[in-house]
């Protein structure tokens, strides 16, 4: 009976020893950093080196913080710009715990840090956006407009003068936010505007204005196109008339030359035909004389007869 009780007591003592040893040691990996507290107050420096460490069991607590880059995602906020345009802006940032002891003293844990970052980053974003025009938050630099056509008309937004730009505004927000968070044991590594848009009411008005402007430009293009078409058609008609006039002149010249050549040919042919006709009539008359006359026949010819003419011309 005594040996059994001793065995139970030994087992209990062994369990207590194991619990004590396990509660007096802790492991820090390469992704972690630790602050030891005793009754809620930090004890010593933060542990940032990976390995096995020891603490007073049951009295001291281990507070583990992430050593990696952490994410902050802001809530979309409605903010007025300097030129009185209401926009929704959505932002994000990356931050890191650089002094875990100071971080614990000021913020306790990551939830407290996220809440504090909301105050800092949202506040700085609101201030800087409200102090700049909308175009400054949208674009980074001025645009170079090359007008290569007389019908090209850039919009007023394209020609806006960018003095700061979105990238510089983000850098200014990052710098000012780090200054405000300098005693929190953290550093804000990066800050960006994720999305920026008009509120619904303003967006509808902007769309209407954009449509109106584009319709105006389209009407101007259409008017200039019609004018250009009229000019081209006029030149075509003028060139066509010039070509027709030149062609008619050349045709009349060719026709005149052809008429002259034809007249010459007709005259020559007529002369040849008259001589052939005279010869034919002469031969027919001679043939008639040969058939109707003999040696004893006497013929009385009038001076108007064709036979007399032939005989007279023969003499």
List the helices and strands and how they pair.
Layout: H1 2-24, E1 25-28, E2 32-38, E3 41-42, E4 51-54, E5 60-66, E6 70-73, E7 77-80, E8 86-97, H2 100-107, H3 110-130, H4 134-138, H5 166-180, E9 186-198, H6 200-292, H7 306-314
Antiparallel strand pairs: 1-4, 2-3, 2-5, 6-8, 7-8, 8-9
Could you characterize what this model shows?
By secondary structure, this protein is an alpha+beta fold. The protein has three domains: 65 residues, no CATH class; 129 residues, Band 7 domain (Tetrahydropterin Synthase, Chain A, 2-Layer Sandwich); 39 residues, no CATH class. It is 55% helix and 18% strand. Strands 6, 7, 8 and 9 form a four-stranded antiparallel sheet that branches. Helix 3 packs across helix 5. The model has no long low-confidence stretch (mean pLDDT 81).
């Amino acid at each position: 009976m005594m040996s059994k009780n001793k065995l139970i007591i030994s087992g209990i003592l062994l369990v207590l020893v194991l619990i004590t040893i396990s509660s007096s040691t802790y492991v820090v990996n390469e992704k972690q950093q630790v602050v030891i507290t005793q009754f809620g107050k930090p004890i010593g420096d933060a542990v940032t080196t990976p390995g096995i460490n020891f603490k007073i069991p049951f009295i001291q607590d281990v507070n583990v913080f992430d050593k990696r880059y952490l994410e902050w995602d802001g809530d979309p906020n409605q903010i007025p710009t300097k030129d009185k345009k209401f926009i929704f802006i959505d932002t994000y940032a990356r931050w890191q715990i650089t002094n875990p002891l100071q971080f614990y003293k000021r913020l306790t844990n990551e939830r407290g840090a996220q809440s504090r970052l909301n105050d800092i980053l949202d506040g700085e974003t609101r201030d800087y956006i409200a102090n700049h025009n909308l175009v400054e938050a949208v674009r980074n630099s001025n645009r170079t407009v090359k007008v290569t056509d007389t019908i090209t008309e850039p919009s007023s937004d394209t020609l806006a003068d960018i003095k700061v730009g979105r990238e510089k505004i983000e850098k200014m927000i990052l710098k000012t936010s780090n200054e405000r968070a300098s005693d929190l044991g953290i550093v804000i590594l990066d800050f960006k505007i994720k999305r920026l848009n008009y509120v619904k009411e303003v967006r509808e008005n902007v769309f209407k204005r954009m449509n109106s402007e584009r319709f105006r430009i389209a009407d101007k293009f259409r008017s200039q196109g019609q004018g250009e078409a009229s000019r081209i058609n006029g030149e075509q008609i003028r060139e066509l008339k010039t070509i027709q006039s030149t062609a008619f002149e050349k045709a009349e010249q060719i026709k005149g030359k052809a008429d002259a050549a034809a007249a010459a040919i007709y005259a020559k042919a007529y002369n040849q035909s008259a001589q052939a006709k005279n010869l034919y009539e002469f031969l027919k008359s001679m043939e008639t004389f040969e058939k109707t006359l003999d040696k004893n026949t006497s013929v009385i010819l009038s001076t108007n007869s064709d036979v007399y003419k032939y005989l007279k011309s023969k003499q």
